[in-house]
Amino acid sequence: xxxxxxxxxxxxxxxxxxxxxxxxxxxxxxxxxxxxxxxxxxxxxxxxxxxxxxxxxxxxxxxxxxxxxxxxxxxxxxxxxxxxxxxxxxxxxxxxxxxxxxxxxxxxxxxxxxxxxxxxxxxxxxxxxxxxxxxxxxxxxxxxxxxxxxxxxxxxxxxxxxxxxxxxxxxxxxxxxxxxxxxxxxxxxxxxxxxxxxxxxxxxxxxxxxxxxxxxxxxxxxxxxxxxxxxxxxxxxxxxxxxxxxxxxxxxxxxxxxxxxxxxxxxxxxxxxxxxxxxxxxxxxxxxxxxxxxxxxxxxxxxxxxxxxxxxxxxxxxxxxxxxxxxxxxxxxxxxxxxxxxxxxxxxxxxxxxxxxxxxxxxxxxxxxxxxxxxxxxxxxxxxxxxxxxxxxxxxxxxxxxxxxxxxxxxxxxxxxxxxxxxxxxxxxxxxxxxxxxxxxxxxxxxxxxxxxxxxxxxxxxxxxxxxxxxxxxxxxxxxxxx
Amino acid sequence: xxxxxxxxxxxxxxxxxxxxxxxxxxxxxxxxxxxxxxxxxxxxxxxxxxxxxxxxxxxxxxxxxxxxxxxxxxxxxxxxxxxxxxxxxxxxxxxxxxxxxxxxxxxxxxxxxxxxxxxxxxxxxxxxxxxxxxxxxxxxxxxxxxxxxxxxxxxxxxxxxxxxxxxxxxxxxxxxxxxxxxxxxxxxxxxxxxxxxxxxxxxxxxxxxxxxxxxxxxxxxxxxxxxxxxxxxxxxxxxxxxxxxxxxxxxxxxxxxxxxxxxxxxxxxxxxxxxxxxxxxxxxxxxxxxxxxxxxxxxxxxxxxxxxxxxxxxxxxxxxxxxxxxxxxxxxxxxxxxxxxxxxxxxxxxxx
Lengths: 483, 352
Fold this sequence. Notes:
The complex is a heterodimer. By secondary structure, chain A is α/β, with parallel strands linked by helices. Chain A is built from 17 helices and 14 strands.
């Protein structure tokens, strides 16, 4: 990094610290900027506006990575330094967490338009409550004169030694115009930090953006075409001339948008009260709940159950009802789904464990019980059922398995559901079958109780599912021989 | 009140609320997405901030912004997303900002798959970003701990002013178990001494991690090192049947659950097995493990869903005091209870 101590400039302005002890060194009133650089001038305009509007207590300035990385040496307000390009993300969080704060993001062309372009556009698109002050000097300053996203066609930099070739390096990026394609920003303007007349326009733009923040109206973006004599290898006067003539031709100055009058000033919401347990419980999903945690009963053993079928057959909620029934009966339980793309690929399966003691892995390889809702489920998982285990299958959709010694019971669940008037409730019929089988060593009514919990949000379905459950229970009692 | 059936990922959000979390920033990724889903549902209803960030880079920098404001903030992600956050984690640690990052680890490297692994161990426990810093890392092994460790995590984060990682895995994140809700909401910490809050009181505060002076930056590094040494006091582990064990599994997260089942089965067949389960991966409960490793004839079996990343920590902590073998599965696979039993029996049979 080069700070050119021989050409440091002094800053005296409202809104700055009286001295700059964070900078260290002996020149306690000098900035680290080069002679003829636009940063010092823009700092002054921002600090003055912050002061004049009485916003120094409310203001948080975000220093970028780039020449302005040390903004916090100078600005007498809250200061946060951000990673390269991430000031808009940092600023968004500050604005959202601190409704009273005035968030000022100060960024250069590499920070804002190259590495941080996504954050820039996304924050603008969300209309984050912040002012972005964008310094465009068409070159990287701090790292030593490399091409910026805004470097002009043909412009020589240390990484475009023959001049920027737009065929291979792209064209100068127009940030104001990009942001002007988005609906959310309130104010977008491009200024020049050159002649006194231009500086007056820049001053007005800074103050406008500051007022928008004071009144919490929304997102403001101001671009400043700014001279960088050091990296343009020009005298301060020639660097300013380069901005006025060549940069301004590529990046036309002016106000692209001002919706200040259309957007109401928004008072800050009242500060949040700390939460109470009652607040949190009030927003939690209604789910299976019991008064006390399960106790220890090693003699109960462990029952491992797999349910599998097509997506849409209610396989996952079936597993939750099995686990819920176990919990309601005072047992340790776990449930584990197939998740991710498989959920959308047509098959679904999940595992439930009911145990008298703490459960190890919720992911199962050996099963005591398989509940198969279709043929592929039987084909895939029947071999995992232990020899003395149980297979329940929907006999309307699957054939009796022949390759296992486990007891296999076919239940015409789909038909029972249709006959009971709720064709989609084959899983409820299968739940009744599981309850009747006794394989889970859980009281039968625990399973039927789960229907009310599962369909608590759709009360009409509770009675209908209970009818299916009752019909299937009746069928099982008549047709399944007791163990 | 009472006991509820809750998914691990949801429990992390519930725990965050009881910790007093102010803001969630995140980008979806399987198998961590339910954290974002549930935060999106619950946080705004309680007046808390929820933002779906444009990417994980933005997520972690939003966390940085909220932490700079002295707020309790969190994000949740998995492998590839966590990789993208590493620069931000370094900035948070360097700026001494508190936050909690939940990593529901999936199988890698690269895009890998969405099955369980524990292969983010190195990037989270050893520090995946640049520079000398550490995350404080908690390893939940149940839905209850997914909730409780959020509260513990925020407490540690603010006590040490350092990022805390909840290093879970796809099984712990996706599974449903009974959850006992916490009884109280943690009171908000007083952050006015260092946070930047847009108030007169905090106007002189600055959050930064650039220190041009070599001596000043070295002093920061030394101060961080002292902080991490101090954190050793918060190391925690669970011992399961280790008192008289000849062979002890060392495992965390889902691996520890399978190992625990294996311990019980091994005891049934006369093998004196035990389990040492670190709850904190950094600080690592090395002294407690060493006390076991130094017993005559001891054999350790490190069981992990990664290629010896965790085993290396065990080797360093025990300084080769006893033989250490490795049981590992990767690619989304789990080792079975039988695999773990066989590994322990092999290790125990090795005893002269």
